[in-house]
Every structure is written in structure tokens, then in C-alpha cells.
Amino acid sequence: MADKDKNKDSKEKEDVKEAGQDPAQAEAGAGPDKTKTVVMLLIVLSILVMILTPIITIFAIRAIMPKDNAEGPKPEELNKKITEIPLTDFKCNIGQTQGTRYAQIDVVVEVSDGSMKKFFESKTQENLDGMLNKIRSAILNIISDKTLDGLLSKDAKAMLAKEIKSDLNEMLQKKTDGVVTEVYFPKFLVQ
Fold it and tell me: Which of 20, 71, 92, 172 lies in disulfide reach of 144, CB 3.0 to 4.6 Å?
């Protein structure tokens, strides 16, 4: 009986060799057609994953993003952006020089809210919130109180900018939620 089984096994192996199959594949039950099918299926699935991943990602990002900005920024939001306001041509005598020395300074004020611009304009019938003359006067008082060393020392500009910023924020805090964020001096001349 053992001889019959051996003959049967060897005959099957010969049949498999004649059919062009590998005996190990024949024993596992996987023919070349089945292997090709599995490989093709894997290739198709890989391609689908590569195509669908970006599409799903785009839809997920769109779902997460807020819908109110779909039209673009609204005019109120544009006004809320940081704005630079130039205040030019400050000329004043320097303290403790008996009028022999003077400073000529241009100031640029950066504000956190563009709607604050109205406070840096002259007071008129159309703009009752205008504080330009008060602001200029406050800046002139700060500059004229400085001594020559107080304007020309190493940290003088930074200290002056900090003092002007603080004074303007104190002046504007009751009228607006915005603040003066920075003060710059594009022109700073002491003679």
C-alpha cells in the first residue's frame, strides 16, 4: 500500500511538471493564475489607496475649516488688522540746553486695530473722536522733557518709544479696545 501511495505522489508530481507548475505551488494549491490574480489585486488596491488618500484628505480639511471665511475677509476684519499711522515733523527744544539744541523727529505709531486711525486725525464735525492735537502735544511734552543724554544715549530711542507707547495707550484706553503696539522713529535728528 505504501508503494501505491508513493507511485501516486510521484505520478502527480510528474503531471504537475508536465503542466509547467512548480510542485511546491501545486501542493499548496496555488497555481500561476492564482498568484497573478493576487498580485494584480494588490496592485489595483495600491493604486486606489494612492488616488483616494489625497481626495479624502481634502474633504477632511474642508470639513474642519470654518465656513464663515469662505467668502473672504469681511470689511470689519480688514479694519482690525495692524496699521501704521505716521505722525511727522516734531520739532522741539531739548531740555536743559537753554534753547541751543533741538530735536527733529518723525514718529510712526503701530496700532492693533485699523479703526483706531480716526483718533489720530483732527477733530472735526465728521470725526468727533479725533485726538490728533492731544496726541501731538503729549508726544512733544515727552520729547521736550528729555535731556541731551536722554535722547542720545545707547537705549534712548527704545526708552522714548516705550514712554510714548505707554502714554498713548493710557490716553486711548477709555475710547477703544485697540492698543498702540509699537512706536518707530524713521527720522531722528538732534542738533
Answer: 92
